[in-house]
């Protein structure tokens, strides 16, 4: 099969290559997926660049997320999975067979059925972004998605991949959603996802506009804690949970006393370290929402497998929407 891979970490143009490798066989508890689209996340290029300190032992086929059809199952796997169309998540986590290839072998626990009428673009967009969004909306709370009904949610960066799904999942759960964006173009994306109020954070009066929508949010899905602390605290109160899923070049200084007075909490979210039970809860909610037609694909830019370097560089340079590799 053809696969994009790297044997050492570094710049995309220096370490990524497309090669012929043997089609892997699924082992016990695993399935093999014929990949029809592979989604690229920021953590994919950061791992390939060496920013996470993970050098491959032999070679690594990157990308955590993908969509395709199960074409073989290993021992101890339900044989009825064969032939099912599925989306994958955390495919390259502790596994050399990521989705940037014609076939990927993953634990059966890391695939979920994709509704028959859902496009490949949606399946490739789920995984890390949608499951991260789901966990951010649930972490530190109780009662599951139902607890969000009638609540107010603030989503920072509503046009980003995690922000997009945070809006859609929160609306699916019955919450009201306000989101911040940096441009009118991104504002249109956030409105299309269902946000009740979209605020351009580059314009004056951001805090006042959000406070006009609500003076107390129950949940913040946060992409830039340091930059957004003043806004988050302005609408935080007893029980507010701020779920932070991304870091910044400089670690922010946390005003502990203000958080104590507000009785608000910060939870940090990195999907790869989420406890198994909580991860499965987030995955199950994502799968349910996808099955209900509540989730939509991001705007997609497609690259062929041979253009994997350009695809990685596009994500590294902040491409809007989702970059997808088509084997």
Task: Characterise this structure.
- The chain is α/β, with parallel strands linked by helices.
- The chain has two domains: 2-126 and 295-326, Quinone Oxidoreductase, Chain A, domain 1 (Alpha-Beta Complex); 129-272, Rossmann fold (3-Layer(aba) Sandwich).
- Helices cover 31% and strands 24% of the residues.
- The protein is built from eleven helices and 15 strands.
- It has helices at residues 12-15, 42-49, 120-125, 128-138, 161-172, 184-193, 206-213, 225-234, 256-262, 276-291, 308-316, and strands spanning 2-5, 17-20, 30-40, 65-73, 85-88, 103-107, 111-113, 152-156, 176-181, 197-200, 219-222, 241-244, 265-268, 300-304, 322-326.
- Strands 3, 4, 5, 6, 7, 14 and 15 form a seven-stranded mixed β-sheet that branches.
- Strand 9 (176-181), helix 6 and strand 10 form a beta-alpha-beta unit.
- Helix 2 packs across helix 11 and helix 4 (128-138) crosses helix 10.
- The longest helix is centred in the C-terminal third of the chain and has 16 residues, at 276-291.
- It is globular, with a radius of gyration of 20 Å.
- The chain starts with a strand and ends with a strand.
- 46% of the residues are buried.
- This is NADPH:quinone reductase-like Zn-dependent oxidoreductase.
- Residues 12-325 form the Enoyl reductase (ER) domain.
- InterPro entries: ADH-like_C, ADH-like_N, ER, GroES-like_sf, NAD(P)-bd_dom_sf, Zinc-ADH_QOR/CCCR.
